[in-house]
Amino acid sequence: MTKYVFVTGGVVSSLGKGIAAASLAAILESRGLKVTLLKLDPYINVDPGTMSPFQHGEVFVTEDGAETDLDLGHYERFISTKMRKANNFTTGQIYESVIRKERRGEYLGKTVQVIPHITNEIQAFVERGAKSATSGEPDVAIVEIGGTVGDIESLPYLEAARQMSLRMGRNHCCFVHLTLVPFIHTAGELKTKPTQHSVQKLREIGILPHALLCRADRPIPDDERAKISMFSNVPNDAVISVWDVDSIYKIPQMLHDQGLDTIIVDELKLQAQPADLSMWTDLVERLENPSEEVTIGMVGKYVDLTESYKSLIEALKHASIHTGTKVNIEYIDSEVIEADGPAALAHLDAVLVPGGFGRRGTEGKIAAIRHARESLIPYLGICLGMQLAVIEFARDVAGLAGANSTEFDPDTQHPVVALITEWFDRDGKVEKRTESSDLGGTMRLGAQRCPVKPGTKAATIYGADVNERHRHRYEVNNRFVPQLEAGGMAISARTPTEDLPEMMELREDIHPWFVGVQFHPEFTSTPRDGHPLFKAYVEAARKYKTSRKQEALKQTTGA
Ligand code: GLN
């Protein structure tokens, strides 16, 4: 039978509840338990797919094609269980489901209310989400409740959790509360009052936390911990200090050193072996002792470059761990390149154009890609980054003037990237290469397996096939592939049924490392293993840097 740990947050948001929940899960997994994680989002949007990335941060895509909260990305990076659609739900989904039942008459004429109908639905969704775990019925499901205690919209979730723990009985559910202990500079003191109040708020609802995770910019001294314990009625050893660290992968060890997992294991009476966090200490050690350093320029729209690329930044960090290379990421605003040319790219060891939507900044990205191609700088294009690489190559090498994506120029003469419904109706000459065109207009989401063409760079990196996740509408247009291939581009992977281009690369006699992928490899990268594509990319950046250094040396010595 699955037991539950509810993780709530107090005082302010953005304290890293997702990372804390995932780190606890990682420790429990290392103790031989089957663990899964769930994220409950108290907003009314049905999913975050339609929310501005600027407001919401990255949209994480699961293997089964759900657009979810970015915390699910953290979950997959910390534990081996794969997340599914059911691991994340929102108030919008709960209400949608309850209203549908009401319309069908399933409530038999009763008045439908927040308690019990919404709270029951939340409990049912929680249990369903826990059961959907890919690794079989989990021993523990860690349930992160979004928002902050005291928010009106979080209340039904807290109430549902309280009811669930009452219903399941002793030792089946426990509560972990994450709060802030701010350091007030003018007083030179850590302040415990916000934590006291936030726990009081939780107790008002009937929840007594079994452990407090107290976030601060520094370790919290014993005196303050004792004070928090006394005022919040949480045992002293369960008041855990979580201070700022430079790597999230240090958190499992920090929590374990203070006994968080033991508190949970004891409370839930779980049969667990001793923790073994050697994998985490090992990768932190590797992260901190690189043998080389490279600088990668990530070119994007200014507004997207902050929170929208969580998984990508982590994937580069994983590559850093597994190649012994410190990876510095420089964020480059594509509109600056559009205005000033590619001078800002001169010192880079590699260029990356990530996924994105909308026309703004695309010409700057294309200019950056041209610079990478002509200067033989390693290039990785992800999703939009692949589409733009194709557009750049079409314009400059394949002689397709004004080539574009119909996303940015619906009337382009050469729609080298287009919805698949648009591929064929422009000049009717090419016959339809796909039976199902219903992908057009809707988002292509989730993982899809496809074979890789032998003898390509893609095959060296991935082996025989790829199984990566998608989130896009437009596709490289097969109509133009012959012209592109004549210029030296290779389509190195295609989907098995629809024949859609999944990966492209430039022939090695043209460019040493130029790869574009229509999918998002960053979603499957983990710190444990890294990701073959990002590892290869960072290796290529290293090689490029070395060759450039040698070049410079040759010039100074006059050799
Ligand atoms: N805007 C492009 C499309 O919809 C690329 C999407 C992406 O990069 N995720 O196809």
From TrEMBL:
Which terms are listed as keywords in the entry? Answer: ATP-binding, Glutamine amidotransferase, Ligase, Magnesium, Metal-binding, Nucleotide-binding, Pyrimidine biosynthesis
PROSITE patterns from the UniProt entry: GATASE_TYPE_1
Example of a GO MF term: ATP binding
Name its GO BP terms in alphabetical order: 'de novo' CTP biosynthetic process; pyrimidine nucleobase biosynthetic process
Q: Which residues form the active site?
A: C383 (nucleophile), H520, E522
> What EC number is given for this enzyme?
6.3.4.2
For this protein, what reaction is catalysed?
UTP + L-glutamine + ATP + H2O = CTP + L-glutamate + ADP + phosphate + 2 H(+); UTP + NH4(+) + ATP = CTP + ADP + phosphate + 2 H(+); L-glutamine + H2O = L-glutamate + NH4(+)
Q: Which Pfam families match?
A: CTP_synth_N (PF06418), GATase (PF00117)
InterPro entries reported for this sequence: Class_I_gatase-like, CTP_synthase, CTP_synthase_N, GATASE, GATase1_CTP_Synthase, P-loop_NTPase
The answer, when asked if Metal-binding is one of the entry's keywords, is yes
Tell whether Metal-binding is among the UniProt keywords. Answer: yes
How is activity regulated here?
Allosterically activated by GTP, when glutamine is the substrate; GTP has no effect on the reaction when ammonia is the substrate. The allosteric effector GTP functions by stabilizing the protein conformation that binds the tetrahedral intermediate(s) formed during glutamine hydrolysis. Inhibited by the product CTP, via allosteric rather than competitive inhibition.
Q: What else is known?
A: CTPSs have evolved a hybrid strategy for distinguishing between UTP and CTP. The overlapping regions of the product feedback inhibitory and substrate sites recognize a common feature in both compounds, the triphosphate moiety. To differentiate isosteric substrate and product pyrimidine rings, an additional pocket far from the expected kinase/ligase catalytic site, specifically recognizes the cytosine and ribose portions of the product inhibitor.
Q: What family name appears in the similarity comment?
A: Belongs to the CTP synthase family.
Name of the molecule in the record: CTP synthase
Gene this chain is encoded by? pyrG
